[in-house]
Design goal:
The protein has twelve helices and 13 strands. With about 400 residues, it is α/β, with parallel strands linked by helices. Bound molecules: pyridoxal-5'-phosphate and zinc ion.
């Protein structure tokens, strides 16, 4: 079937990522009520689509419209997200002895982070549903992105954010017209407040992985990676993992691309980098003893004490023969400085953490010097100036 002839939206149903229960297609689903796990959007017609059609459509992430859950193009809420560059890091690569080191620079998205993709998708779905108010708990970037896309769509947004988040994250929400609620604690505390607001007012809830659509937006990173590397995927993808939406999304994209017959060979090792101050995934992946660190970090997006998709993340790390490791705040600043000084990139501390994980990954043999390694820089340093000296 040619893409242009395919029925509008291939979305078929939702499937629980844990108990595999099928949930019928509905407007704004949340998560599996039986086992409290994320739902995954499933599509029909994943074979026989003509890939060439992508190139005649838009340039950003919406050119994958047919592989996304929205039914009508008129409901797309876009600010120009997606199609971010893959940039070779020659100078740092040779310094570290990694021949093929790249970064996909998601800082170039609207509102300065990869959260734009997920929220462009989720707000489009909310627009399609007719709901007029949504709520999100956030470590910072998702709140700004939600506020911007809601402003564009004429939908009201309530953002619940830790009080200690740098001012710019709060200000942008307010400029975009969102209601801002500040909480004393991390994103899990914000999540509880958001749940109460949702119950009280019936808001649409866009909490990380508690609805399936932000993941669908984030998966477009994986489609782009497959196209940008012309099917010869990197050996390893290094990702700064908070709630895990990007990591799960990239992996889901590869599986769908493979199902469509456009990808052959092994998939990359997926590697989760966390903050030493908040590393529940690292703790669980290595079955460490004692309690995991669950505190704040200068990489605000990595301070996620209870990722809702924890089991799914761990499963992908294991299936892909990847790994998980933590980097402390001081090292993150070092990473930010090195990417700035050697590559002209001013990345968020989350991105700095990735660079600083590489030596350890080489030492541990998780990556090899001859590997093709891709770092996913998720955000921009310009929003974190309060956090970096
Ligand atoms: C810059 C940045 N990087 C990484 C993350 C973690 O993203 P995820 O929760 O999808 O793992 C966040 C989340 O707030 C972020 O803002
Ligand atoms: Zn379930």
């Amino acid at each position: 079937m040619k893409l242009a002839e395919a029925p509008v939206s291939h979305l078929s149903h939702f499937e629980c990522s844990n108990c595999r229960q099928v949930v019928e297609r509905e407007t704004l689903p949340s998560y599996c009520e039986d086992c409290h796990s994320p739902l995954l959007a499933r599509y029909g017609f994943l074979t026989g689509i003509d890939k060439a059609n992508f190139h005649i459509a838009e340039q950003g992430m919406w050119r994958y419209f047919r592989l996304l859950p929205l039914s009508k193009r008129e409901d797309i809420v876009s600010l120009g997200e997606g199609l971010t560059p893959v940039i070779p890091l020659q100078r740092l690569g040779s310094k570290l002895g990694i021949e093929n080191l790249f970064v996909k620079d998601e800082a170039l998205n609207p509102t300065g982070s990869f959260k734009a993709r997920g929220l462009s998708m989720a707000v489009s779905m909310i627009k399609q549903s007719g709901k007029t108010h949504c709520v999100v708990p956030t470590a910072g970037n998702a709140g700004g992105a939600l506020s911007a896309y809601c402003a564009k769509a004429g939908i009201k947004a309530t953002v619940v954010m830790p009080r200690h988040t740098p001012e710019v994250f709060k200000k942008e929400c307010q400029y975009f017209g969102a209601e801002l609620v500040l909480a004393d604690g991390l994103i899990d505390t914000c999540g509880k407040i958001a749940q109460e607001l949702k119950k009280e007012h019936g808001y649409a809830d866009v909490s990380t992985m508690k609805e399936p659509f932000r993941l669908e937006g984030k998966k477009t990173m994986g489609f782009e990676i497959a196209e940008q590397f012309e099917g010869q995927l990197p050996d390893a993808i290094v990702y700064p993992c908070g709630g895990g939406t990007g990591l799960v999304g990239i992996w889901k994209a590869f599986l769908e691309w493979r199902e469509m017959g456009w990808l052959e060979g092994p998939l990359p090792k997926m590697i989760a980098v966390q903050a030493a101050n908040c590393a529940p995934i690292v703790h669980a992946f290595h079955s460490q003893h004692g309690d995991p660190a669950l505190g704040p970090s200068i990489a605000n997006g990595l301070a996620v004490p209870k990722p809702f998709a924890k089991d799914l993340i761990l499963d992908i790390l294991k299936t892909s023969k990847g790994s998980a490791l933590a980097v402390d705040d001081q090292q993150m600043i070092e990473g930010v400085k090195m990417l700035a000084k050697y590559e002209g990139l001013f990345v968020a501390p989350e991105g700095g953490a990735l660079l600083m994980s590489l030596e350890k990954l080489l030492e541990q043999g998780v990556i090899k010097r001859e590997d093709k390694v891709l770092l996913i820089n998720t955000g921009s340093a310009y929003k974190y100036l309060e956090n970096i000296p």
